[in-house]
């Protein structure tokens, strides 16, 4: 039984009010894989990189026990590159460079050893690639979580609607929930989106936390109030990785476990933003995670 | 022992995507007083209205057992009037008309029967009026809660800083916390503001809930996700009234009770926005409030 994550592995160059980086390792599958690796030990990635990615960078993943057999290395190819600059509020950013490179022709291949997949995270990608990955699994996973973004709603809405019919959980942000549903109220938006296929919807609200809808219930998780958000890149992917990693660990999908999974995803995301890129996610301890879970408990607990 | 609320009693004319009203009763003290009246039975208002306010409108307050001996009626005067139009997102609004009328010369008088005040809410008003009200009490109340807004930070910052030194709890929204502190991070903003005097700070985030800071702790309360926000006018005042009303009821000020008070304030505010003006706050039952408190519990509870 394994957790398979399909998504980008990339180079990012980042500029925030706290500083800037040269090309560092990023990508949705990288963040999600690292996060999931703290909760579950059979994490397998499907992605594509260029020859420029190199062994040292791949070791960031393998050092955490992540299986990279499904990460195709294209000879002579260049790795997907994204560069962005965050504004002072850290909630908005400008994309400076997007070079798709080998990601442009990404055709996800499932190694035979990945066919034991029971938990599948389809990271933010062209919906057609998400559909292909799902179709190439011999049996439907126990749980499929899909992340997407406004861009695909703009340019590939029909494909997105097709894949939505086949997933169990959708994670998007509040603006995207409003765009996808045409409803401003997030309660109404959730109703519309749950009618599109997913059994559960997670609406990510950045510094305001996340809402989980499903089984006729709602759960609201805060984000941890932080003195400094150093670099928000990858926070959403980290959340998704922690979320599905927790569910793979507890092996049971219901609203109660989903709520805990949201808290674990939020805790890991709160670490992600403390340093540039994946830096903070490379060396967490079990105690680090436990400390933060306790902070979420004390942040939200009341006794009426 | 009583709870005294100083603030405006007003006429509002509102326009929202759901409809519009003629002049209806509004004002910070009105919303706060009605909310508090569901939790505590000795609520006393200090305000000023014109002769146009009339007995029927005053009965909205007295019907809930609220003492209006401190509501001065100015012969021949006109009641404060505000008119506003909400945009589709309900988070932003345009002020169409502001006629201060008798509020322009509001000089708060404390009836002798109000000198038993142990809980004092200074609603959003000129800071000088808040200072005067506080000074005219014979003894310092057990708890002073102050609400204010960005306008007073722009035009009366020094007076505001003076009154902040004398209060226990400040309630403002996130943009105001950032303006008052000069810090974007709400954690850093809270540190700066708590250094200005208050022992506790509540940052109201509208549909994203509220944060409570104090005693070195943080508490995050969500807002109830609602399908329709009919009219947000008065939600913040209702929150403040429910907050202090709960504390007056339990008669003990500490972080544990403050957290519950935030939940009660949020529950009452969630009713406030369901209808125009004070309409929904005029006829709540104990069961209505209990039902909503249970919704907040199920919305936030997880068990890791």
Order of the strands making up the biggest sheet of chain A: 6-5-1-9-10-11-12-13-14
3D shape of chain A: globular
How many independent structural domains of chain A?
Answer: 1
CATH superfamily of chain A: Ribokinase
Largest interface: A-B, 38 and 37 residues
Stretches of chain A where pLDDT is under 50 for at least 5 consecutive residues are none
- As a percent range, the share of helical residues of chain A equals 25-40%
CATH fold group of chain A: UDP-N-acetylmuramoyl-L-alanine:D-glutamate ligase
**CA radius of gyration of chain A:** 18 Å
CATH class descriptor name of chain A: Alpha Beta
Main sheet record of chain A: 9 strands, mixed
Domain Carbohydrate kinase PfkB (chains A, B): 20-279
Keywords (chains A, B): Kinase, Transferase
GO cellular component, one term (chains A, B): cytosol
InterPro entries (chains A, B): Carboh/pur_kinase_PfkB_CS, PfkB_dom, Ribokinase-like
Break the fold down into its secondary structure elements and pairings.
Two copies of one chain form a homodimer.
Chain A: E1 2-6, E2 10-16, E3 19-20, E4 24-26, H1 28-37, E5 43-50, H2 55-62, E6 67-74, E7 81-86, E8 93-99, E9 117-122, H3 127-135, E10 143-147, H4 150-155, H5 157-164, E11 169-173, H6 174-181, H7 186-194, E12 200-204, E13 210-214, E14 217-221, H8 235-250, H9 255-272, H10 286-300
Parallel strand pairs in A: 1-5, 1-9, 2-7, 5-6, 9-10, 10-11, 11-12
Antiparallel strand pairs in A: 2-3, 2-4, 7-8, 12-13, 13-14
Protein name (chains A, B): Sugar/nucleoside kinase (Ribokinase family)
GO molecular function (chains A, B): kinase activity
Organism (chains A, B): Sphingobacterium allocomposti
């Amino acid at each position: 039984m394994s957790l398979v994550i399909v998504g980008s592995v990339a180079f990012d160059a980042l500029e925030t009010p706290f500083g800037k980086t040269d090309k560092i390792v990023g990508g949705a599958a990288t963040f999600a894989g690292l996060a999931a690796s703290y909760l579950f030990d059979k994490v397998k990635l499907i992605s594509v990189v260029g020859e420029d990615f190199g062994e040292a960078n791949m070791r960031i993943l393998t050092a955490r026990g992540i299986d990279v057999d499904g990460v195709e290395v294209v000879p002579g190819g260049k790795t997907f590159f994204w560069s962005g600059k965050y504004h002072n509020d850290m909630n908005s950013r400008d994309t400076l460079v997007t070079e798709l490179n080998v990601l442009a022709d990404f055709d996800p291949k499932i190694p035979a050893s990945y066919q034991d997949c029971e938990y599948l995270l389809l990271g933010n990608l062209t919906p057609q690639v998400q559909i292909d990955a799902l179709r190439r699994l011999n049996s439907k996973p126990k749980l499929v979580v899909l992340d997407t973004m406004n861009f695909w709603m703009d340019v590939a809405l029909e494909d997105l609607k097709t894949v939505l019919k086949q997933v169990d959980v959708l994670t998007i942000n509040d603006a995207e929930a409003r765009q996808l549903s045409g409803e401003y109220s997030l309660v109404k938006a959730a109703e519309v989106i749950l009618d599109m296929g997913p059994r559960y919807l997670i609406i990510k609200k950045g510094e305001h936390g996340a809402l989980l809808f499903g089984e006729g219930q709602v759960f609201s998780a805060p984000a941890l109030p932080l003195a400094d958000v150093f670099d928000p890149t990858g926070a959403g992917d980290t959340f998704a990785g922690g979320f599905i990693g927790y569910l793979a660990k507890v092996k049971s999908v219901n609203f109660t476990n989903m709520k805990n999974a949201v808290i674990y995803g939020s805790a890991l995301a709160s670490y992600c933003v403390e340093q540039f890129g994946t830096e903070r996610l490379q060396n967490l301890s079990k105690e680090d995670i436990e400390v933060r879970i306790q902070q979420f408990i004390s942040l939200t607990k009341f006794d009426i």
